[in-house]
Amino acid sequence: MRSASPQGCIRGFGVGALLAASAVDLAYADSMGFGVAPVAVVLAAGLAAVLWPARWRPRWLTVPVRTTVPALGTLLYCAGALLTEGRAPFGPGEAIVLLCLLFVAVRHAPPRWAPVCAFLAAGALLTLPVRAFGPGAEESLALLLVGLVLVGLVGGLAGYLRSMDYRRTVAVGETRRAERLAIAADLHDFVAHHVTGILVQTQMARMMAASRPDELDPVLAGIERAATQALASMRRTVGVLRETGEGEPAERRPVGDLVGIEDLVAGFTGPHHKVTLRRAPTVSDDLPHEIQAAAFRVVQEALTNVRRHAADATEITVGLRQDADRLEVSVTDDGRGRHPAPGRRPRWWLRPGRAEGTGDRPGR
């Protein structure tokens, strides 16, 4: 039986508290003699925007829609209440929902929409005291100051996290660019090896042409083989350089092989953690050099990330499995890490000329 993770417990507590606060809003509105229906509609829109699971969220329910519609509903309710009955109460549930929408707008909305969505959410929150006590009342001014402080705190936190996301994206892009340059440098070394062999064999063929012409065929065959290998290596590696997808791992360099992975695992094992290599019998030693090098780089980077971000890991497993022309590389550990993602483990599928990967943290 799996125990709940701390993140799951915190998330469940937050959802429960938000639902309880919304129930308090409905009970308070009913006890004050105001209609429950408008409050229920506003709360339903806000709760749906905040709590709707991402995996079941329709495509049209974007961040701007999720943040602006409930905020506009609150503003319309405030305007209607002030024009008809003069005031209408509010409770903690409505305020918390609007703060959540403000956080979502600042952190996740597209750049052109973020100011608009944040302004509407903050404006809706600041109108709640006016709706409850009327404009100019002392209670309204006091709660307005509290609302401004909350808006500043929530908006500042969301903005800080958004800037961290941007910096992380820029860092990942720079890392990919640097590794592509490293791939190009290694490609030069790898192809230079074949070209040097071609040059030497060509010089030998010229010398043999006059004295031993009948022995030229094996030399020419060697030249053809070296040229074919060099061309194939260039095509495969340049194909990787051209890949610019979001999930593309850039750690493919023609350095290392499957035997080197065993050395990596043996060298990484220490007194506080154990590394196990599980290599399926179907994994062939005759895979193209670039595929073996890609697997080596993936495992090397993953073990490095384990040391950096999951120092508490005690059991680390490196898996290699081949399915037809596809090599699957997986690295798992039991550490908590800095950004845990329960139930997920990174995998990489390596083919000639292509690399695909999944996972929350590349290299873990």
Automatic annotation (TrEMBL):
GO CC term, one of those recorded: membrane
Domain Signal transduction histidine kinase subgroup 3 dimerisation and phosphoacceptor: 179-244
Keyword Metal-binding attached: no
Known EC number: 2.7.13.3
The name this protein goes by in its record: histidine kinase
Recorded superkingdom: Bacteria
Reaction(s) catalysed by this chain's protein: ATP + protein L-histidine = ADP + protein N-phospho-L-histidine
Compositionally biased residues, Basic and acidic residues: 353-364
Region Disordered: start-end pairs: 332-364
Residue intervals of the Histidine kinase/HSP90-like ATPase domain: 294-340
Transmembrane segments: 33-52, 64-83, 89-106, 113-134, 140-161
InterPro entries associated with the record: HATPase_C_sf, HATPase_dom, Sensor_HK_TwoCompSys, Sig_transdc_His_kin_sub3_dim/P
Annotated source species: Streptomyces viridochromogenes Tue57
Amino acid composition bias (Basic residues), ranges on this chain: 338-348
Example GO molecular function: phosphorelay sensor kinase activity
